[in-house]
Every structure is written in structure tokens, then in C-alpha cells.
Write a structure and sequence with these properties.
The protein is an alpha+beta fold and 163 residues long. Strand 4 and strand 5 form a beta hairpin.
């Protein structure tokens, strides 16, 4: 396993759209393992492959306090089950130290493939619903700052360029 470099905003590679994973194989599983190690090292709760400059539709996540619930979502998609939005303070490993409130649907159905190549569906609310939407946005070349005003986005961009 290896810790991979995380792309930082405003790196243009964060805007690349990820391609579907055709086959879950040892290479895919190795990427998943490296992504988990990278996410944990960076003290994150979710990581999309795009953030480590691999443009495949792979997300890893662990929302537990003790890192006991690692989750893998390959080729994820969501269906909004309730249009009601909930505000959450979001942060991002690609935009370290920045947290802003974003409103997202609070109830979604996730369809994805797991690390063994099995397709699953899961109803999600709360933090899981927010996190999966945030990470799918990464796979689509979108960042949480895109939901903010132009002024806030420019200030964050300026701050990140200084770092």
C-alpha cells in the first residue's frame, strides 16, 4: 500500500471527469487500498480517485470514529428520494482548512459496485448522503466550492494558491 499525493484546488486535473471501471480486478483493489491509506493519513472521511489523479469512478469512505467501517463505491450513482435539502459544513482534502455550508438533498438511494465486483443499493440519509454526493461530484469534475458565491470561490482560490 502507498500514500498517494492529493491534488489541491485549483489544480485543473480536479475538473477531469472520471471514467467507469469496466472490471474490478487486483489493480482496482490495489487502488482502493492505496486510497484508504491516503484518506486515513490525511484524516479524511471520504476520497474520490480523481483527487489522487486517477480518473476512474472509485470512492472510498469511512464515517466511523474508530475507522471500523470502510466503504467502497465503484461506479456510484444516486437517485434523490426526497428533494428536501439539509445544510452541512463541508470540507475537502483537496481544499485543506476550508469549510463552507452547502445544501444537498438529505435522502438518496445509492447504487454502486463494491470491492468484490458486486452491485448493491443502499438508502442514505445524513452524513452518508452528503458525503456520497460530495465524492460523486469529484468524479464528475465538480467541487463543493462550485456551490458557493463567486466572491467566496475567488477568496478560497486566492488562499489556496498562496499555500
Amino acid at each position: 500500500m502507498a500514500i498517494l499525493p492529493i491534488l489541491k484546488y485549483p489544480d485543473p486535473r480536479l475538473r477531469n471527469k472520471a471514467r467507469e471501471v469496466q472490471t474490478v480486478n487486483k489493480k482496482t483493489q490495489s487502488l482502493i487500498d492505496d486510497m484508504f491509506e491516503t484518506m486515513i493519513d490525511a484524516k479524511g472521511i471520504g476520497l474520490a480517485a480523481t483527487q489522487v489523479d486517477v480518473h476512474k469512478r472509485v470512492i472510498v469512505m469511512d464515517l466511523s470514529e474508530d475507522r471500523s467501517d470502510p466503504r467502497v463505491f465503484i461506479n456510484p450513482s444516486i437517485e434523490v428520494l426526497d428533494e428536501t435539502t439539509q445544510p452541512y459544513d463541508e470540507g475537502c482534502l483537496s481544499i485543506p482548512g476550508v469549510y463552507e455550508t452547502v445544501e444537498r438533498p438529505n435522502h438518496v438511494m445509492i447504487t454502486a459496485t463494491d470491492r468484490n465486483g458486486d452491485i448493491f443499493n443502499e438508502e442514505a440519509t445524513g452524513l452518508l448522503a452528503v458525503c456520497i454526493q460530495h465524492e460523486i461530484d469529484h468524479l464528475d469534475g465538480k467541487l463543493f466550492v462550485d456551490y458557493l458565491s463567486n466572491l467566496k470561490r475567488q477568496l478560497i482560490r486566492k488562499k489556496m494558491k498562496k499555500i
